[in-house]
Amino acid sequence: MTRPPVDPTVELRGITKRFPGTLANDAVDLTVRRGEIHALMGENGAGKSTLMSILYGMERADAGSIRIDGREVTFGDPSAAMAAGLGMVHQSFKLFDSLTVAENVVYAAEPRRFGLLDRAAARRRVRELAEEHGLAVDPDARVGDLPVGLRQRVEILKLLHRGARTLILDEPTAVLTPAEADALFAVLKSLAAQGRTVILVTHKLREVLEGSDNVTVLRDGRVVARLVTADTSADEIASAMTGRAVDLDRVHAPGTPGDAVLEVTSLTTDAVHDVGLTVHAGEIVGIAGVAGNGQSELVEALAGLRPVASGRVTLKGRDITHVSATERRAQGLAYVPEDRHAVGTAPAASVADNLAMGHHRTSLSAKGLLPPATVRTHAGRLIERFGIKAATPEVPASALSGGNLQKLLIGRELAHEAPLLLVEQPTRGVDIGAIQNIHDQIVAYRDAGHAVLLVSAELSEIRGLADRVLVMYEGRVTATYTKDEADEQALGLAMAGGAVAPTEAVD
Amino acid sequence: MTHTQIPRISGVLRSPITFSVLAGLVIGALFLVGTGADPFTAYGAVLTGSLGADGIGSTLSTGTSVLGMALALAIPLRAGLINLGGDGQMVLGGITAAVTGLYSPLPAPLTVALALLAGMAAGAAYAALAALCENSLGVPLLVSSLLLSYPAVSLASYLARYPLKEPGSSLPQTRAMPNGVALPAFGDSTVTIGLLLVVLAAAAYWFTDKRTAFGYEIRMTGLNSRFAAYAGVERRGLTLKLMSVSGALAGLVGAIGVLSFPYRFVDGSLTAPGYTWTGLTAALLAAAAPLGTVVASFFFAVLAVGGLAMERTTEVPRELTQVLQAIVIVFLAARLRFPSGWFRRRSQTTSQESPQEIGAA
Predict the structure, then answer these.
(1) Contact A349/B224, CB-based, under 8 Å?
(2) Number of CB pairs < 8 Å for A and B?
(3) Contact of A316 with A332, CB cutoff 8 Å
């Protein structure tokens, strides 16, 4: 997919940004040409976000220059960057849930009539843009009611409405189904074909290989590789990112299931209908599905954080359908929630305090006392055992990288040695290096004879870890596969609602 | 290692609290200059008036009430709960203590103890009612505690004006406590055992916060309530417990007020000095941390008492100290801090980014 060289649209030269203790960007050069889809890759902490923040006017570089369309610019804030034709879709969308699509799209750049918002014009504008770029979405729908994939379209429409010629997308597929991701890339390709430029910040190899023209890889704040996508391979990019050869898509050996630990019969709660499943000791059961099909609700109900409408849940034969979260933990349940910042940790609290949660009433305390020294020792132990990189146990958890925070969370929960572990999206937004570590930990936990229920939107993760795979679609378990049957095609189809009885799918 | 030491020191210097207090003092000085007074004389008068031999007693007795209310507000605040009903709980505690003191058949020392306990129980029960309103009716605590406060204050006022009114008096006050029904005072000062009780409460709060599992749960709930709930901390129960303790402390302050000079319940005398709001201010200033709350309470007691002295000696109105308090709060709410490099312009950043910023200084 080589194109004739065109003048660069975005040119970063020698961008250097120093934070205390780290050189986030060290003389980074990035050249993106008009009409290309350029992937910016790197592990967490490699400097991708800093670089994009600088480009988008959110951070000021210590040194270096930015040229847009050949003109040197300095952006004091994002609105200056927008005025220069840049637009960014952040990982967490910046939309008003209670407003309609049209209102969101025109926000802060409203078509006006007699000084008032011209709603008809706004709707018209959204329809035009949507049609022009193949981003079908109902202008009158409330954003809060839309699935994530459509919300992302709204974000893109917003940028197009403001006339962005260069679109920066930060981890755009983290929340999408494979099919939605494909649709997104079709849109991006057509935008690129019209002469717009796309910068894709991501760590997913597959989509980079399929969707981009060129790749720039950052590691430790430096550019370590500039690759033409057509001439490279997943292994080459991965080893550039990590600095060593990485074994991608490992499939772990199956476990040896023992007695049933968790038994769920026709469980119904918000967004979950009539779900039945069993997890045995020494077994990882994977739940695949696109985010928002009831997996989170199911796990919350199992963890005791969401009331059960009907059905029955037993843990080691004891009925826990209606008992509290604390009681469940006492009976042998540990839980790694999906949202590690909002639920799984208190980012403002120290690493030691975060590691103590759940242990603070059991192993760490006696007669209600919780001596700080015990909390520190416990933290030190887990930090060492799980290889958490923290300057001291006293630093706030917010100072940890995503991967380290996840190690903290998983380490804390594994340390309960509970017979049942619920894990949600264990490696979302985590480095390749840390992913391997986390996967190894989960498999080792299973091999020690514990039951694991794994929820993941990442197919390779499900296939690599799970001994059995269930697919959830619209709140129901619509398909079940053994490890051998669970190939990407069958799972992808079932996740999109087209569950068929698993047949021998030949590559 | 310098890595941990330097951020700690510069972190304290650059904390929003230091900034707020200093900014308050500087702006207060501008006010003083504007009214033609000498800021140094005025501030000097505040200090000598509150910490000098004549003022320290008054500062400590004011400090008793301020610290008591500050603790009452800080304890729920530590878990992110705001009790705005301090006035009502304090006044109910006061009137209950007064009734107990007047009608208890027990000997005086026991009556004092009983009155204190009754005052605490009344405050606790009333605060628990606000908690129940949130827990079972879904009324936000902020609203339920504040709104419940008014009827309590009015009820106490009614009692002091009609059924319990001192016969023959023109003031809305109850009869004086019987002989001996009073908190022992230190020497002939107005400082009573009440100060000791409140300091004990502060010590208990410090201990709970630092060294117990319950205190840990409170802190974690304050830092991230979803995190605490995820690990099994039951929010409703916690709200109820913390509000009860909070109300008990407010009731204690009321009871102490009745059992020390003027040894009776006088309508309005508990609420007029604004202990609840000063206490809330102190708790906010300290972000509800135990030691910080004590220090901040003392600071505000000094301001309140010293402000009176300043008015006497320099003719600067004592309202200035309230202006000072207000400025401190406004700055604190804005979370302003000294910039990392004094002459380097830098936009405000979120607290998550501050560790990096601090070291950059």
Answers:
(1) yes
(2) 94
(3) yes
Q: What are phi and psi of B198, to 5 degrees?
A: -70, -40
Contacts of B15 (CB under 8 A, 6+ apart): B337
| Residue A222 phi, psi (nearest 5) | -120, 155
B3–A21 C-beta distance less than 8 A: yes
Residues of A in contact with B227 (CB under 8 A): 342-346, 357
| Percent of chain A's residues with pLDDT above 90 | 56
CA neighbours within 13 Å on the CB side: how many for A504? 0
**For A292, which DSSP code?**
T
Cβ atoms of A85 and A165 within 8 Å: the answer is yes
DSSP B16: H
* Torsion angle of the four alpha carbons B219, B221, B223, B225, in this order, in degrees rounded to the nearest 10: 180
- Indicate left, alpha or beta for A424 from its phi (over 0: left) and psi (-120 to 50: alpha): beta
In percent, the amount of chain B with pLDDT more than 90 equals 66
Is the pLDDT reported for residue A504 higher than 70?
no
Residues 373 through 432 of chain A touching chain B, CB cutoff 8 Å? 375, 391-392, 394-396, 398-399
pLDDT tens digits along A215-245: 999 988 899 999 999 999 888 888 888 877 6
**Which of A323, A360, A422 to mutate: most B Cβ within 10 Å?**
A360
Q: Which residues contact B83 (CB under 8 A, 6 or more apart)?
A: B72, B73, B76, B77, B89, B127, B130, B141, B145, B243, B246, B247, B250
Considering only CB atoms, B229 lies closest to which of A305, A368, A395, namely: A305
Alpha-carbon gap, residue A80 to A72, rounded angstroms: 13
A325 to chain B: closest CA residue = B232
Question: CA nearest B262: which of B312, B192, B198?
Answer: B192
Q: What is the mean pLDDT of residues B202-228?
A: 96
Closest CA to A238 of A219, A221, A220: A219
Q: Which residue has the higher pLDDT, A219 or B336?
A: A219
Residues 268-327 of B with CB under 8 A from A: none
Per-residue tokens: B163: 């059924």
Q: Which of residues 329-358 of A touch B (CB under 8 A)?
A: 329, 335, 337, 342-349, 353, 356-358
Residue ranges of alpha helices (H) inside A255-401 are 295-303, 325-332, 351-356, 372-385
Q: Beta-carbon neighbour count of residue B151 at 10 Å?
A: 12
- What is the phi/psi pair of residue B266, to 5°? -110, 125
Q: Which residues of A45-78 are buried (b: 16+ CB within 10 A; e: fewer)?
A: bbbbbbbbbbbbbbbebeebebebeeeebebeee
Whose CA is closest to B123, among B97, B160, B155, B101? Answer: B97
DSSP letter at B173? B
Residue A179: which pLDDT band, with cuts at 50, 70 and 90? confident
Inspect the interface and report whether the beta carbons of A21 and B4 lie closer than 8 Å.
no
The residue among A2 and A496 whose pLDDT is bigger is A496
Top-confidence residue, A5 or B247? B247
Chain A residues with CB inside 8 Å of B352's CB? 347, 398
| Strand order across the A214-219 sheet | A86-89, A166-170, A197-202, A37-41, A214-219, A222-228
User: pLDDT (tens digit, 9 = 90+) per residue, B74-102?
Assistant: 999 999 999 999 999 999 999 999 999 99
Q: What is the DSSP string of B233-276?
A: --HHHHHHHHHHHHHHHHHHHHHHHHHSTT-S-BTTTTTTTTHH
**What is the ipTM, given to two decimal places?**
0.84
Neighbours of A339 (CB within 10 A): 15
Q: Please report residues of B whose CB lies closer than 8 A to that of A372.
A: 210-211
Please give the Cα distance from B318 to A306 (Å, whole number). Answer: 54
Chain B, residues 205-224, CB within 8 A of chain A, namely 210-217, 219-220, 223-224
Tell me the residues of chain A between 14 and 33 that have a Cβ less than 8 Å away from chain B.
Answer: 19-21
